[in-house]
Design a protein that fits this description.
Blueprint (H helix, E strand, L loop, with lengths): L1 H22 L1
């Protein structure tokens, strides 16, 4: 389950970064 949590966190960070890049 730890891997899943880490994956989810990484995915969330990637989404946030992509959104920030798009907004910029």
């Amino acid at each position: 389950w730890l891997i899943v949590v880490r994956w989810s966190l990484l995915r969330r960070l990637a989404c946030s970064a992509a959104r920030l890049a798009s907004a910029r």
